[in-house]
Amino acid sequence: MVAEELKLRELQAIEDEWRTDRLLLDAKKAASQYQKEADKCSMGMETCEQAREKSEANLDKQRRLSYMCELRARQNGWKEVAPSDDL
Known about the structure:
single chain, rod-shaped, DUF1068
């Protein structure tokens, strides 16, 4: 009877170990998937930040160009006319 009880406990331990291994494998898969999603998010943030910096640089260039054009126009006699309310 003791041998039978030991055999049952051994089978239960093997089953518990299998179940634990399966849960560990599932947890590792989930962690890997979350890491992949986090990496995608980080890459998206990098791309967004690069685009923002590029847009900011382009805007700065356009502002300088507009200023230079306005400066030349003023040097050539252009005067800004105040908007009228006669419309």
